[in-house]
UniProtKB/TrEMBL annotation:
SUPFAM superfamilies: NAD(P)-binding Rossmann-fold domains (SSF51735). It holds the Pfam family adh_short. This is SDR family NAD(P)-dependent oxidoreductase. Coiled coil: none annotated. PANTHER family: (+)-NEOMENTHOL DEHYDROGENASE, SHORT-CHAIN DEHYDROGENASE_REDUCTASE. Belongs to the short-chain dehydrogenases/reductases (SDR) family. Gene3D superfamilies: NAD(P)-binding Rossmann-like Domain (3.40.50.720).
Length: 235
């Protein structure tokens, strides 16, 4: 039996990933920072619920203790993420971005990943087949971001892509440090969710595909990579 925690799984890509992994036979913890939203989602999915705010040390420690007491963890999907936008859904430009915006974005997207991984590491180390999936973004790719003509090149924001570039880099470092684990970064693609004011061009079913696949990666499968549903992406 594989036990899986997905952070930020009360909606969007995390919710769809939870739905698919429950169907695949995983015991799934729907992680959410709001108890009511999380409980409702878990109930709909036939999953468990754990309260976890990835920006809060005490919340993450309590979640790790609860999951440990219930039997441990095999798969961690670091999915919770934010992108600060103007109220009309447009992206802050480089001239507008402040250190405070960067801090807020990194607190969830980057420090959140580190905080959760650090807390759950002892549990993952006890698993026979530990897996970590970091939900990154093509916007974090320096290679694509410097390739003229691509949507990633055209994207004007600073905080969100920088945070995902950091996620990519820490994915590589963790994968090297823990070769007994499969640790990969994934790019779901531009998906219709609240994160982008539902402007994405893909469905959550399409977007969750690579997250679900990498959550089920075999022990001899890839680690330290960056993948879309169509294949590897350049860093
Ligand atoms: N949609 C896309 O096109 C796209 C593309 C590439 C990558 N991604 C990545 O995919 C992941 C999921 O995003 P999504 O598109 O599904 O967005 P979403 O629908 O807005 O879902 C984001 C989830 O993260 C949760 N979350 C935010 N801050 C949190 C915190 N501090 N602690 C715990 N949970 C928190 C949200 O909870 P609340 O409901 O409480 O806010 C929500 O459950 C993110 O990492 C995002 O960067 C998305």
């Amino acid at each position: 039996m594989t036990t899986t925690l997905i952070t930020g799984a009360n909606k969007g890509l995390g919710y769809e990933t939870a739905r698919r992994l429950v169907a695949a036979g995983h015991t799934v913890y729907v992680g959410s920072r709001d108890a009511e939203r999380g409980r409702r989602a878990a109930e709909q999915l036939g999953a468990r619920h754990v309260l976890i705010d990835v920006t809060d040390d005490a919340s993450v420690a309590a979640a790790a203790a609860a999951v440990e007491a219930d039997g441990g963890l095999d798969v961690l999907v670091n999915n919770a993420g934010i992108e600060e936008r103007r109220p009309d859904g447009t992206v802050y430009t480089p001239a507008e971005v402040t250190a405070e915006q960067m801090r807020t974005t990194f607190e969830t997207n980057v420090f959140g990943v580190v905080r959760v991984l650090h807390a759950f590491l002892p549990l993952l180390r006890r698993s026979a087949a530990p897996v970590v999936v970091n939900v990154s973004s093509g916007l974090g790719s320096l290679a694509i971001g410097t390739t003229e003509g691509t949507p990633v090149y055209a994207y004007p924001g600073v905080a969100y892509p920088a945070s995902k570039a950091a996620v990519n880099r820490l994915t590589v470092q963790y994968a090297k440090a823990f070769p007994e684990m499969r640790i990969n970064a994934v790019e779901p693609g531009y998906t219709r969710t609240d994160l982008n004011f539902n402007t994405g061009t893909q469905t959550v079913e399409e977007g969750a595909e690579i997250i679900v696949r990498m959550a089920q990666v075999a022990p001899d499968g890839p680690t330290g990579g960056f993948f879309t549903a169509q294949g590897p992406l350049p860093w």
